[in-house]
Specification:
301 residues; single chain; eight-stranded parallel barrel; two-stranded antiparallel ribbon; 11 helices; alpha/beta
C-alpha cells in the first residue's frame, strides 16, 4: 500500500532480550513492532537478543503490520552482525540509531548493501541528536536514492532532550520547534515521521495529551514503551468519527453536478478547496485501512 496510507499510529518497542515480550507482541494491536537490539539490551545480552529477534521475525512478518528491527549504532562492534542477521530474517525495515548526517545515511546503506539486503527492505532513521535536527532536510533529500530507501524518521525525544539540555515538561515547549523541524523535513521528502516515547506508564491523561500534541504537529504516530499505551495511540492518531463524516461531506459536495469544475465551494459556513477534497479522500482511505487491520487482528485472535 502507499506509504501515506499505511497506518503507523502506534510503534511499540519490544526488547530483543525479553523472550516473553517477543512472544506477547504477536497479539498486540500495534501498527508497528520495533524489535530492539539497542538501548533495551545489555552488552552481554547482545548476541542472544540478535538470535532471538532473528528467529522471531519470520513469524511476525505477515498481514499489514510492519516489523522493524532497531540495530545497534554504526560505530558499535555489534552492528555488522545485527545487519547480516536481519537481512537474513527479512523484517520490513531496519531502524538505525544516531543517524545525524547524510554520510551516516550512506554508511547505513553501504552496510545493508554489503549484507545484500533486498531492495524492498527499508531503512528507518532515528532522529535523536541536535545534528540530526539540523541535517534532517539534507538527509531527507537523499532518502529515495539509492536503495534501500529511507522511509521513516523516528524521533528519539529522550536522547534529543538530553543532548540539548532541555527538560521534557507538559506541552514540550522546549522540544516543539525541533519536532516541527523534523516533521517539515520528513514531509518535504515524503517520509513518515513518528513521535518519541512517553515515559510515565501510569499517567494516561498526560500520555493522551502528548499523543494529541504529536498529531497536531503532523506526526503519523507515536513510539511506545508498553503495550498498555497502544490503544490510546491508535485512537488519537486515527481519523475520528467527526473527521470521517466531514470527509464524506466534502467528497459528496464536490461530486454534485453544480460543483463540477469548481476549485472552491461553500460547505456549511466553510469555504472548501480541492486540496480539502484530496485530503478527505486520504482520510477515508486511511480509515478504511485501519478498519481492515482491526478486522484482521480480531480474526487472528
Amino acid at each position: 500500500m502507499p506509504a501515506s496510507m499505511r497506518p503507523r499510529r502506534s510503534a511499540l518497542y519490544v526488547p530483543g532480550s525479553n523472550e516473553r515480550a517477543l512472544d506477547k507482541a504477536r497479539s498486540v494491536a500495534a501498527d508497528v513492532l520495533i524489535l530492539d537490539l539497542e538501548d533495551s539490551v545489555a552488552p552481554d545480552r547482545k548476541d542472544a537478543a540478535r538470535d532471538a529477534v532473528a528467529a522471531a521475525v519470520p513469524g511476525l512478518t505477515h498481514g499489514r503490520r510492519e516489523i522493524v528491527v532497531r540495530v545497534n549504532g554504526l560505530d558499535t562492534p555489534w552492528v555488522a552482525r545485527d545487519i547480516a542477521a536481519m537481512v537474513a530474517a527479512r523484517p520490513d525495515a531496519v531502524l538505525v540509531p544516531k543517524l545525524s548526517r547524510t554520510d551516516d545515511i550512506r554508511r547505513a546503506r553501504s552496510a545493508l548493501g554489503a549484507a545484500q539486503a533486498p531492495k524492498d527492505m527499508h531503512l528507518w532513521a532515528m532522529i535523536e541528536t541536535p545534528a540530526a535536527i539540523i541535517n534532517a532536510a539534507a538527509m531527507g533529500a537523499i532518502a529515495a536514492m539509492p536503495a534501500p530507501a529511507v522511509a521513516c524518521y523516528v524521533i528519539g525525544t529522550n536522547d534529543l532532550a538530553a543532548e540539548i539540555g532541555a527538560r521534557i515538561l507538559p506541552g514540550r515547549a522546549a522540544l516543539a520547534p525541533h519536532l516541527a523541524q523534523a516533521v517539515i523535513a520528513a514531509r518535504a521528502h515524503n517520509l513518515a515521521v513518528l513521535d518519541g516515547t512517553f515515559n510515565d506508564l501510569l499517567d494516561e491523561k498526560s500520555f493522551r495529551a502528548e499523543c494529541v500534541e504529536g498529531r497536531d504537529l503532523g506526526m503519523d504516530g507515536k513510539t511506545l514503551i508498553h503495550p498498555a499505551q497502544v490503544s490510546i495511540a491508535n485512537q488519537v492518531f486515527a481519523p475520528s468519527a467527526d473527521e470521517i463524516a466531514w470527509a464524506r461531506r466534502v467528497i459528496e459536495a464536490f461530486a454534485e453536478p453544480d460543483n463540477t469544475g469548481k476549485g472552491v465551494i461553500k460547505l456549511g459556513s466553510r469555504m472548501v478547496e480541492r486540496l480539502h477534497e484530496r485530503q478527505a479522500r486520504r482520510t477515508l482511505e486511511l480509515a478504511k485501512t485501519i478498519a481492515t487491520m482491526a478486522a484482521e487482528q480480531a480474526g487472528a485472535e
